[in-house]
């Protein structure tokens, strides 16, 4: 796979995760204005290389991503984008909420609450849109 | 559910995760000598309350736990214990390894490598024991 | 102690820490709408189980909580709620400010400044209300 | 060097880094109202003691500071102030952007993106002012 | 206070915290061989400036330090040294253990367990020496 | 640039940073046994893509890497490998030591001391080998 393919594969995976229009597309666009180099590295490595591995499903990947983002803290933008993707690739609302609750004994309540508030905003919007 | 039940439920879940003898049982024992109060809180809350939720399978919980522990860093003892459990509840070696690889674009390679080295030690031992 | 008692004990401790109306009550309410399970775990474990230990006074607990929250960073909501409680259970303004200053050689100035700005907002409001 | 000299040296270094008027001067002012003791410790230790070392240039120090602040996350105010200084002491826009990109394999994209967005806001403003 | 006084004050406070011979004295010695500049900054700022504030007692400072060190993780050497000091300045074994337990709902069990194991080693040794 | 080239470029950069035999080569080897996929991602992305940017010199990159690794904590293996590289690409011992000292006001002494002890071990060995 050459670099053009890696980037295209990345865009393909982003579209699988989030449709034609999403926070990921927006972030890619903003990054491209600031630094095309960073935009390329981000799309090609994270979404082209890593998300193409077949050992895990996209549902598994999205819940694992929510786990790492809530643990790190301070990544509301990314957490919201991945909550959106989690719902789009078929994770249930209940799985996402329990994923965050599951972290309570590992990281404590402050980051669990922060994560829940950010993530739930997206879940709420998703349900309202579906209604 | 009263507190005795919560503790018993915790021990029951630990046994589901890791058999009759495991690092979790050892940690519980060590803790009991240092502080029975902490040992109780740990078993009852983490394993009694949280692991009893039915929205996620034990396989899902173990991979999510690996994600948060590798992200935090500095938790080799816990990461090894949960790698052991992940294998016991039926996660494949490939899923565990890809879970850690999946974190590369989110936390960077230093903690991914640290996590992989600790986790792989357990995987290796598990395979050797099975052979 | 059964689970109903743990929750009730938690509410009792929250009220000791913060009166009948406070950020803690608000957070509990918001959480209850999102996830009654998380709201219960939070109140019963953090405030029911942990705050009931008699080895430390509530003043000691509040200063220790400020120490861990400022160290973690990114927990302004929680830091403000616990600054409020610290003042209500009798910690002085001077103790709270020095607690944050004390962290400078351990965590550096960026998180100390962030913590001080958030915490001081509450101290200021408390003094204005008292005036 | 006595304490008055350390503070004066700190102010002198702040002025070298950021001119007569800057975020650092503002922060110092805000801190002085909250806690003169913290304001003094901050200026004397960080800028008086540490920045006076001659083993590194101010350009080197500012890029190293950007590295530690982006790594920590949650320090946008400080990151913007040091991006401003980096530009004032002669680091190029390209060096600053590549410094943040350089962190991708070490800390992952979430904190790299957060840092880039905060830092680029200052770079943009600097270029607009220069135009 | 000039710099010689700050350093002397630092040594005086280290001695109050830990007697004539302690891990702090050892660390200071090791640092002096590696970098006299860092050894001076460490003693003068941390122990000379910060520990001289009178708004908190040494007992309060030591428990707050244990809180920040357990929260950060990866600081066993420092945590052991401060557990030693906590005991020497009059904190009880029960207060130290409950300080670490108190952190469970704020940082989760992995770092609480790591901290407890390191800290308890010192408590054990202290009790054995006293016996 | 296709993927074979990216990997080759990565090896070329590793060799520039650390000679024909180094900790990086060892880590790559160990990783290859555990997961060829992770070994490839690591070499191609970190050393092939990122280190090939021409906006920063290798000396600058190595000091920035030391800053992020000391800030993260718990990465002694990586910190030692990059201290080795820093020395090989021409950073002086004084610059490396001051880089770590420079972090004191940003991250506090515990992680600065941990980093200094790990890094200095390599500096010492480097000087002994040169003698």
From TrEMBL, chains A, B, C, D, E, F:
Domain Carboxymuconolactone decarboxylase-like positions: 36-118
Gene Ontology MF term list: peroxiredoxin activity
Top-level taxonomic group: Bacteria
One Pfam match: CMD
Name of the featured protein: Carboxymuconolactone decarboxylase
């Amino acid at each position: 796979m050459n670099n053009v393919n890696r980037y295209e594969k990345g865009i393909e995976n982003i579209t699988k995760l989030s449709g034609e229009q999403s926070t990921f597309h927006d972030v890619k666009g903003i990054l491209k204005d600031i630094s095309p180099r960073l935009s390329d590295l981000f799309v090609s490595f994270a979404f082209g290389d890593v998300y193409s591995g077949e050992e895990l499903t996209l549902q598994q990947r999205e819940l694992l991503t929510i786990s790492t983002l809530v643990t790190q803290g301070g990544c509301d933008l990314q957490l919201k984008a991945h909550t959106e993707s989690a719902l789009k690739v078929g994770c249930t609302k209940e799985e996402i909420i329990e994923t965050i609750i599951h972290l309570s004994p590992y990281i404590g309540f402050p980051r669990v609450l922060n994560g829940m508030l950010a993530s739930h905003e997206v879940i709420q919007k998703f349900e309202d849109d579906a209604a």
